[in-house]
Amino acid sequence: MAVSDSIDIVVGARDSFTENLAGYLGADFVELDKHVFPDREVRPRVLAAGDDILNKHVLLVNRTGSGKGFQPNQTLVETLFVVRNLKSLGAAKVDVLLPYFFYAMQDKVFRDGEPHSAKYVLELLKSAGADKLFVVCAHMQRAEGKLKFADGIIDAYTISVFGDIANYLGRNYDFKDPVVIAPDFTSSESANEVAKAMGAKEASAIHKKRDLNTYETTIREEDIAELNGRDVVIVDDIAETGGTLAKAIDLCKKRGAGKIVCAVVHPVLSGECFERVTTRGADFVATNTINSPISKISVEKTLAEYIKDACVSYS
């Protein structure tokens, strides 16, 4: 029996993100019940009969929450169990969308004895039976397209949503001669993308250095010139503790910035991240790849369009 290049079924938690995505894909929606036992073991259940899954092309979507609701280990194990279960129910293909790619920051062995975590996650997904993997703004590869890091392991793609961030900022803010700043030099390409989409004349990046033992970061202040009242947009892929964003905000204020808006893709928001940004007078917004109080930028349509194209082009 020929397998459809298009997605037949989207499986995931019953929330607006997953249901919207199914709608944009023109696929049926099947709910995933995510039960956690008192001992913290997980038992995800696909709420569909086996005949509903048989010979279908399925997209499994698994999204996590922010702050104390950020559960990378739980979400990863759920994903592995559900992929395996869908294949046992007779699914012809099981593609996976992890809007936030867990362990992406450990994309190499930085010190002797550490795991190559990102690679191991890819291998686990492939071993469970995943056919394709889609992630959003993977930390190890900022450019959109086939995830080069995954070559030889699994057919994987990283999708950029910085265009959605730029569109949101353009609709909701009236900026005065804005400068788009990346608080880490590795995000400079993303800052350029947002600046171009916003029509901003200038983008800049700050060099950051992280101590691998203490995880403290330092930034190079000379990377930011005098701002003289110009508005600033600080863009990054992940807001975890907020330490880097806080340092960037302080530097921009020192240089005379006007309004400051921090816009990120993945709002992990650990610890006092939200307070570190907002108590400095900056606005704080993010996409809805992770469910959080600042997830105001919807990216489902962008993801659906990319996934549809990838399923046809690389089937």
Kindly describe this structure.
The chain is an alpha/beta fold. It folds into 2 domains: 9-161 and 299-313, 3-Layer(aba) Sandwich (Rossmann fold), CATH 3.40.50.2020; 162-296, Rossmann fold, CATH 3.40.50. The protein contains 9 helices and 16 strands. An 8-stranded mixed β-sheet has the order 3-2-1-4-5-6-8-7, sandwiched between helices. A 6-stranded parallel β-sheet has the order 10-9-13-14-15-16, with helices on both faces. Helix 4 (117-128) links the parallel strand 5 and strand 6. The model has no long low-confidence stretch (mean pLDDT 92).
Features:
single chain, 315 residues, alpha/beta, eight-stranded mixed β-sheet, six-stranded parallel β-sheet, 9 helices, 16 strands
Radius of gyration: 20 Å
Mean pLDDT: 92
Low-confidence stretches: none
CATH class wording of the largest domain: Alpha Beta
Q: What structural class is derived from the secondary structure elements?
A: alpha/beta
Strand elements, count:
16
What is the count of helical runs?
9
Proportion of β residues? 25-35%
How far is the first residue's CA from the last residue's CA? 15 Å
Question: Numbering strands along the chain, what is their spatial order in the largest sheet?
Answer: 3-2-1-4-5-6-8-7
